[in-house]
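Known limitations

Structure tokens in this collection are predictions and should be treated as such. Users comparing against experimental data should check residue numbering before alignment. To illustrate the layout, the record for ABC transporter substrate-binding protein is reproduced below. The input appears on top and the generated tokens appear beneath it.
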Amino acid sequence: MRDQMQVLIAGLSDLGWIVGRNLALDSVWAEQHYERFPQLARDLVSRNVDLIIVLAGTTAAQAAKAATSRIPILVIGVADPVKFGLVASLNRPGGNLTGLTQPLASWGKFLELAREAVPGARRVAVIGNPTNVIYSDYVTENETAARLLGLQLQVIPISSGEELPAAFGAMKSARAEVLVYGPDSVFLNNAGQIMALARDARLPVIGPNRHAAELGALATFSADYAALFRQAAVYADKLLRGAKPAEMAMAQPDRYDLIVNLRTARLLGITVPPAVVVRASEVIE
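Generated tokens:
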């Protein structure tokens, strides 16, 4: 997230907002502890900031919205903001919150990619964070997709990096053939440990972003986060200049990246079908 924040800062700079000159950033981080979100949000409100930017998803966005109805809130990459009570509608949010959303339905794409990239695989493990407000919907979306794709699904709840070794033990017992995980902050911040455990288990991983691919995931599927954060800079610029969040329609990603890591495929003895490779926006050799 900190790397993506740099993209946002660069985008703001291009629009005339220079840190240290006419822009001050006051960053707070929950460090994977979702229970800290409400207090962090209240702390920002007490500092009378002009704009709150939420990077950590729907749970953090709910905490920010609960903390203030006055300060504009810009969210980036939240899941289904209407369903989770953040806005009245995507076209007319109607409150003090707007930004960029990511459809819940895209999570089924991870399982589809797992089935395609690892031919013959049917037993798929999925890790999810039960402290995330979207967890039950995340599980439901994956269960629905697994049924449609004819996959056997093993959902393992994980709320901290300390739980990962035991989770991989459970995957081994269930003879999982692929691991899938989504863009939850706990997993993003523990991606190195996830990939190290997966290498030891010789378990191919379908991950949520470029960083996972660089660490050794077999394939990743995600919104173009660089484009997403550049677009977020445009939203932030308008809000800082007085635009009303209630009247700013929320946007959805218009581009997704598929990255295939053929180096990992060779190490695991997997032949990724050419139909998958040819669709990739990037191939790691």
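For this record: The beta strands are 52-54, 73-79, 97-102, 123-128, 152-157, 178-181, 205-207, 219-223, 256-261, 282-284. Residues 166 and 198 are 12 Å apart (CA to CA). Please report discrepancies through the issue tracker.
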